[in-house]
Amino acid sequence: MSRLIVISNRVKRPGTGAEQGGLAVALSSALRESRGIWVGWSGETTERFTGQIAFNEDSGVKTATIDLEEQDVDEYYNGYANKTLWPLFHFRIDLAEYARDFEGGYNRVNERFADTASPLIEPEDVVWVHDYHMIPLGQMLRDRGHKNRIGFFLHIPWPPTRLLVSLPHHSVLVETLFAYDVVGFHTEEWLESFRHYAEREMGGTVSGDFITVGNRTIQAVACPIGIDTQEFVAASNSEEAAIMREQVDVSMQGRSLIVGVDRLDYSKGLEERFNGYARLLKDNPECHRNVVLLQIAPPSRGEVESYQEIRATLDSLAGRLNGEYSDVDWTPIRYVNQGYPRDRLAGVYRAARIGLVTPLRDGMNLVAKEYVAAQDPEDPGVLVLSRFAGAALQLKDALLINPYSPEEMADAILKALAMPLEERKRRWRKMMDSVEQQDVIWWRTCFTGRLTGEVLNPAEAETA
Ligand code: ADQ
């Protein structure tokens, strides 16, 4: 087994227990087994960049991190990554900011990561770079003479060509992807958009999984990420989950719970979700007092203005809606801005009759899969899912909706509330089959199999 080097913006410190996400779990086990290294930003800032690498080892996973300067964080992380690429790649060119400083900072920080990783890479290592923060990193490693197999995985959508061309120097950025051996996306849709760009804007040719531009041929694949399903099922059966469920149930007094769990991000369609719920209450007085929407949304990227704005908008929408419909003993929206440990979150998912997942665009969306995994097989809830989430391509037995339509959302909620047990069970079983079969380890194998040449077809990874 080749040693794996993972490079990502933030290194999730291993061994942090319950707070660890599925991604950290999947990568940590591969890193541990191959005695690899996880390289990235420590999350800390320093007055003057020194390039000093901090090495740690926790639960068998080695990490190598660097601190960045404030200016790096402003230009690279808050700037190019989260004010330019994130909105553009989520189809929001109205929110995308194009500034030379951002682009300069993005390249500078990527060079810093390349300098950090380069001396750690040995000839037989396999290198896996993650996400939109690090698109040019592979090219920078090639520039430093590395001939290793290097792969890149994009966790967010790939936008249609006609949107992407609004990015200044888009072709310079996309060309750097051709320095990798394998480039991965969550869905065929994002992969298709990438191929389209390569063909139309770069004169590339496509042959099966392979795309050739000039003298470079890369393999471009769709490998949908999953969750650590077994772990999540265990979490939902844990004592902590039972306590949380009980706490929620008591407070509901027989009402039906609808739950939403998202980072506070405009791409998650929270404003549209509140509007859809408002439409439900407006058109269906019989729902008053009988339903509660619990929206859990921990703030993220608070230094970016568009995130401050969406937060203010949601505060005001929730306040207005509660003001209009609440009664002395019923509040229609419980809007919570904090995070919960996974066990407790699993308990909330299980207590909910409906999981409402309505992003306007999402690379995959793991909350949808977590909601499914946390259900009681004998009395499962219903997933209402945006057709614009990557997860909709796998979870076809959810109630799929257009999140821009408040009427469609309200209709789906009504349908979910009235859905007979047999239908709920049937839909849930099919979704659970997918969540079980294509879990996070399957995803990792799907991608690394391509990267090491061990798996030729993602479908084969299923049995790996
Ligand atoms: P995100 O945009 O962060 O990920 P998502 O896939 O839904 O979106 O993952 C969010 C994670 O955070 C979930 O595991 C969820 O449980 C957790 N979380 C959210 N709110 C929480 C809360 N209040 N308390 C505790 N945990 C909470 C990006 C892409 C996605 C893609 C993933 C993985 O935008 O499309 O699915 O990466 O590739």
Task: Tell me about this structure.
- With 464 residues, the chain is of the alpha/beta class.
- It contains 17 helices and 16 strands.
- Strands 3-4-2-1-5-6-7-10-9-8 form a ten-stranded mixed β-sheet, sandwiched between helices. Strands 13-12-11-14-15-16 form a six-stranded parallel β-sheet, with helices on both faces.
- Helix 2 packs across helix 3, helix 9 packs across helix 12 and helix 10 packs across helix 14.
- The mean pLDDT is 94.
- The structure holds adenosine-5'-diphosphate-glucose (ADQ).
Task: Furnish the topology, listing elements before pairings.
Blueprint: E1 4-10, H1 22-34, E2 37-46, E3 54-58, E4 61-69, H2 70-89, H3 100-117, E5 126-130, H4 137-143, E6 149-153, H5 161-164, H6 170-176, E7 182-185, H7 188-202, E8 205-207, E9 210-213, E10 216-222, H8 229-236, H9 239-252, E11 256-261, H10 270-283, E12 291-296, H11 305-325, E13 333-336, H12 342-351, E14 354-357, H13 366-373, E15 382-386, E16 399-401, H14 406-418, H15 421-437, H16 440-452, H17 458-461
Parallel strand pairs: 1-2, 1-5, 2-4, 5-6, 6-7, 7-10, 11-12, 11-14, 12-13, 14-15, 15-16
Antiparallel strand pairs: 3-4, 8-9, 9-10
Bound molecules: adenosine-5'-diphosphate-glucose (ADQ).
Q: Which runs of at least 5 residues are low in confidence (pLDDT < 50)?
A: none
Envelope shape: globular
Strand order of the largest sheet: 3-4-2-1-5-6-7-10-9-8
Number of helices: 17
Main beta sheet: strand number and arrangement? 10 strands, mixed
Q: Beta fraction of the residues? A: 15-25%
- Count of strand segments: 16
> What is the typical, i.e. mean, pLDDT?
94
Helix content: 40-55%
| Class from secondary-structure proportions | alpha/beta
Rg calculated over all Cα atoms: 22 Å
Termini separation: 15 Å
> Which small molecules are bound?
adenosine-5'-diphosphate-glucose
GO molecular function: alpha,alpha-trehalose-phosphate synthase (UDP-forming) activity
Pfam families: Glyco_transf_20 (PF00982)
InterPro entries: Glyco_trans_20 (IPR001830)
Protein name: Trehalose-6-phosphate synthase
